[in-house]
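Quick one, tokens below:
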């Protein structure tokens, strides 16, 4: 058979195939390969989670695995004490001190990349922790980190953890306003930031944005540390440092050789806050704690990502999101492996950048997002073909559903049919992976995340909370607590209960069996118990794997001069998964023209950041509303997707639908 024919035949076979067995070569070496783990964990729940706790080094042993006496405020490994930075660094020094902890790849290609061995990481984390302590940072002070993908970001996280000071990382792509809101919400008086970073070869002004954000902070800000990423006086932005602003390198030099004893923290002490979008305009401060979170990140890194200390593991996410927290920093470092960080974008200087990095560093795993895979697919397989990707042993995806076509492209063109793919469902709130295949055990089904992990009681239920039968769609729920779960929303226990528990729980009950966690995703169950996640059922849009609240975007738009009303929905997008569609009514005396459109887009970028930029702004004389005045978002979604419009009989103003369709068509 000619090569071409063989290839066509292979493609046809792959396209039809809806189940793939893990490659034998992978199973033989997998960290977890015994299927008995599912039954064992179920029989031994919650004690099964000692398996995760055993991956950590404790200063004081815990007394109880799970304290469920006050649901939904569950506590894990109570009585135990440990320090996260000691777990991620110090305990590896003896065996792995000279091995790379972090391999950092900078963006301009001529940039000197940096390697931090465990020894070097230990030194700099100690020095920075000493500096922070001198600035006044103590246990339980929340430090905001508004930083791009530079090594100083994980160093700052670990320095905070060493001191017992929780961090709140704000994604560098977020706007000045978003920074100010988050600092105030967390009562955070300390900020670590950077002068700038590079995007596709050009320096970006980050300190200007940080300064603008700081000007908007209502609470006291005591100190600001600025990492010099662009090179002194070399950035052309010329902000200089204000009186309360310290140069990172100066602080490190002042504390050369300093050593800070890791502060023993209670298992349930806060490790960090991470703000995420919800249904209301106000972001939610998701609180994660010390032991349960780290145990979860470490156990899932080991069992799902199959990380071993000698691996070089590459996750292409940004540390500004939960994926980077759990699976660039905490999970991999807890296991003592080499974790990679890439500052730039996958298409600079060319569209083979990731494959060049995989080849050069001989990466063992690659964990990325479906949106990236769809972009790679669009660019074509000639880019991965230029490189030797045979070092890869496992592939992963996260952030949104992956369509089977993209899954198969990834499997063939990146994994060469030799790597299992883990499609991992989880959320900022879950701390780590919840639903996915164990790669050394389970059959893979493209498009379906898989069964719940061992010990995770995820179920798909109907509107009444009853489990659906196979083949049916319903709502994803988690029926039992797990160590990595959020503990509450910062300063807002009530909203915590409302958002995640109220839907399916008896909130008056003290019996944990009456409490059910609702992640606000729709899902489908198949005959083998595999869960296919269908997407959000709340007013949250998932753009390129990132959560954006429609209310947040709407309030930014309504703040624009001349805008009377706005509705925002998610519409399908070939690469981003979903994109932001805005429908806007202008006030009398204003024109819905290009100038107005630009002002609206700028307002959204200023309030949130470029990721929330509307794909399309449609001016309309009215919005479709029910008789009770509720905007019919479902209809607007249909219009955005160019779908046939469903039932409009409940509308107060059905005639408006044709007008909007006309406006979209324009
Ligand atoms: C939401 C969580 C998990 C870190 C990145 C996003 C969606 C996530 C999958 C997946 C289908 C997924 C869900 C979830 N999601 N992973 N494998 N398949 N959907 O974290 O910003 O907290 O968003 O992302 O809708 O609820 P996040």
């Amino acid at each position: 058979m000619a090569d071409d024919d063989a290839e066509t035949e292979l493609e046809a076979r792959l396209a039809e195939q809806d189940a793939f067995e893990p490659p034998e070569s992978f199973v033989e070496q997998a960290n977890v390969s015994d299927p008995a783990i599912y039954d064992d964990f179920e029989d031994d729940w919650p004690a099964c989670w000692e398996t995760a706790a055993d991956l950590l080094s404790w200063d004081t042993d815990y007394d109880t695995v799970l304290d469920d006496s006050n649901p939904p405020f569950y506590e894990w490994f109570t009585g135990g004490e440990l320090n996260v930075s000691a777990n991620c660094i110090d305990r590896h020094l003896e065996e792995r001190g000279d091995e790379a902890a972090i391999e950092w790849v900078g963006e301009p290609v001529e940039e000197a990349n940096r390697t931090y061995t465990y020894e070097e990481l230990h030194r700099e984390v100690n020095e920075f922790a000493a500096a922070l302590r001198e600035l006044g940072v103590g246990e339980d002070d929340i430090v905001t980190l508004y930083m791009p993908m530079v090594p100083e970001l994980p160093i700052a996280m670990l320095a905070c953890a060493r001191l017992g000071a929780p961090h709140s990382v704000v994604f560098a792509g977020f706007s000045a306003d978003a920074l100010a809101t988050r600092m105030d919400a967390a009562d955070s008086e300390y900020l670590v930031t950077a002068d700038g970073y590079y995007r596709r070869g050009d320096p970006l002004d980050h300190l200007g944005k940080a300064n603008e954000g700081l000007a908007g902070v209502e609470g006291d800000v005591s100190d600001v540390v600025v990492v010099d990423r662009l090179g002194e006086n070399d950035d052309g932005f010329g902000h200089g440092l204000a009186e309360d602003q310290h140069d990172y390198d100066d602080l490190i030099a002042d504390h050369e050789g300093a050593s800070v004893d890791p502060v023993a923290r209670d298992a349930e002490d806060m490790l960090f806050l991470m703000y995420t979008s919800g249904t209301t305009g106000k972001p939610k401060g998701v609180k994660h704690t010390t032991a349960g979170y780290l145990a979860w990140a470490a156990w899932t890194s080991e069992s799902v990502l199959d990380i071993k200390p000698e691996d070089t593991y590459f996750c292409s996410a940004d540390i500004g999101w939960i994926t980077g927290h759990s699976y660039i920093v905490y999970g991999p470092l807890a296991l003592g492996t080499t974790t990679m960080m890439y500052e730039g974008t996958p298409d600079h200087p060319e569209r083979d950048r990731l494959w060049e990095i995989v080849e050069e560093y001989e990466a063992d795993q690659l964990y990325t997002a479906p949106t990236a895979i769809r972009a790679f697919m669009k660019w074509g397989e000639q880019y991965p073909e230029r490189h030797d990707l045979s070092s890869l042993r496992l592939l992963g995806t996260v952030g949104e559903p992956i369509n089977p076509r993209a899954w198969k492209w990834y499997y063939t063109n990146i994994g060469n049919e030799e790597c299992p793919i883990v499609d991992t469902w989880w959320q900022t709130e879950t701390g780590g992976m919840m639903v996915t295949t164990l790669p050394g055990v389970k059959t893979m089904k493209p498009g379906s995340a898989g069964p719940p992990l061992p010990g995770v009681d995820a179920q798909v239920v109907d509107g009444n909370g009853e489990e659906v039968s196979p083949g049916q769609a319903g709502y994803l729920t988690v029926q039992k607590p797990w160590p990595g779960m959020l503990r509450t929303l910062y300063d807002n226990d009530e909203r915590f209960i409302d958002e995640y528990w109220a839907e399916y729980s008896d909130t008056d009950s003290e019996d944990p069996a009456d409490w059910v966690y609702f992640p606000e995703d729709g899902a489908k169950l198949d005959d083998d118990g595999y869960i296919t996640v269908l997407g959000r059922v709340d007013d949250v849009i998932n753009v390129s794997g990132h959560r954006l609240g429609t209310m947040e975007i709407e309030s930014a738009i309504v703040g624009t001069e001349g805008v009377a009303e706005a509705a925002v929905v998610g519409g399908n997008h070939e690469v981003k998964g979903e994109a932001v569609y805005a429908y806007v009514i202008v006030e009398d005396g204003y024109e819905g023209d290009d100038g107005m459109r630009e002002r609206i887009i700028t307002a959204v970028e200023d309030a949130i950041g470029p990721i929330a930029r509307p794909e399309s702004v449609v001016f309309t004389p009215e919005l479709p509303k029910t008789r009770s005045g509720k905007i019919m978002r479902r209809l607007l979604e249909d219009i955005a997707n160019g779908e046939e419009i469903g039932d409009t009989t409940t509308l107060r103003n059905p005639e408006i639908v044709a007008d909007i369709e006309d406006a979209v068509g324009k």
